[in-house]
């Protein structure tokens, strides 16, 4: 049962990393110090790791507040890397090294879906800073909820559904148009 819970926490934290890259890492390290993670890797509960992760959260939040639309590709890359790292951090004791790939895939799906949602919100008249603030808040909340056992599976399924929904909407956008060759 511990394996199932550890994988669930890893999936949930990876999904949250698709929204905000540093917050799931910081919450995972804090949860490891309290013993809330089922099988974290050894460095997860070190004081230096916790401090560095929380400093990264502060830097990312300030960067999003000051310069919210900057380097969208680099932001997606950070989220993918953070997804792999946080899955490995949370569940690396049970499934070593496989969590890097699984977490990166989950974070990439969430990051791509949120990228499209954010672009649609800005095109519809939303403020760039406001959408960044909402996304950052959702990332913090999702990371906290991901620590609850079995919720990570629901978060991963919801992320997949959201990505598929966005893909279907894109496909329907040009439905009925002919392609001239």
Map the helices and strands.
Elements: H1 2-17, H2 22-34, H3 47-66, H4 72-91, H5 98-123, H6 128-146, H7 151-173
Helix pairs in contact: 1-2, 1-4, 1-5, 1-6, 1-7, 2-3, 2-4, 2-6, 3-6, 4-5, 5-6, 5-7
List keywords for this structure.
181 residues, mainly alpha, 0% strand
Helix/strand structural class: mainly alpha
- How many separate helices? 7
Q: Can you write the helix and strand succession as a string?
A: HHHHHHH
Beta-strand percentage range: under 5%
* Uncertain ranges: none
Radius of gyration using CA atoms only: 17 Å
Helix content: over 70%
| Net shape | globular
The tally of structural domains comes to 1
Q: Total number of β-strand segments? A: 0
- What does the largest sheet look like? none
Please, what is the average pLDDT?
A: 89
Question: How far apart lie the N and C ends?
Answer: 57 Å
Protein model, in words:
- This protein has 181 residues and is mainly α.
- It has one domain.
- It has helices at residues 2-17, 22-34, 47-66, 72-91, 98-123, 128-146, 151-173.
- Helix 1 runs antiparallel to helix 4 and helix 5 packs across helix 7 (151-173).
- The longest helix has 26 residues, at 98-123.
- The protein is globular and about 60 Å long.
- The mean pLDDT is 89.
Give a nutshell description of this structure.
The chain is an all-alpha fold and 181 residues long. The protein is 76% helix and 0% strand.
